[in-house]
Amino acid sequence: MAILESCEESRRNVTIKEVKCPQCGQPVEVFLREGATTEAAKCEICGYVIPLGTHFE
Ligand SMILES: [Zn+2]
Q1: CA 24 / ligand 1 centre spacing (Å)
Q2: Residue 3: inside a domain, yes or no?
Q3: What one-character DSSP code corresponds to residue 55?
Q4: Residues within 5 Å of ion ligand 1, judged at the Cβ atom
Q5: What is the rounded CA–CA span in Å between residue 4 and residue 2?
Q6: How far, in Å, is the centroid of ligand 1 from the Cα of 22?
Q7: Is 32 domain-assigned?
């Protein structure tokens, strides 16, 4: 149960943000925690992958 609880806890701190793809400028949705991506996000337009741990403001 403790593992489940900490999972819920970390999920609460994640925000979804739309950022511009560095390559084509189209909006890409990323999951941020403390300003950094929690998983890699792929641009659906050009296929550019924003890697895990990329910082956005
Ligand atoms: Zn793109």
Answers
A1: 4
A2: no
A3: B
A4: 21, 23-24, 43, 45-46, 48
A5: 5
A6: 7
A7: yes
β-bridge pairing 41-42 and 27-33: unpaired
The whole-angstrom separation of Cα 6 and Cα 40 is 22
How far apart are the CA of 23 and the centre of ligand 1, in A? 5
- Does any domain span residue 5? no
Q: What is the pTM of this model?
A: 0.73
Rounded to the nearest angstrom, the distance between the alpha carbon of 25 and the centre of ligand 1 is 6
**57 — pLDDT class (breaks 50, 70, 90):** confident
pLDDT digits (tens, 9 = 90+) for 12-44: 789 999 999 999 999 999 999 999 999 999 999
**pLDDT value at position 13?**
84
Q: Which tops the pLDDT comparison, 57 or 45?
A: 45
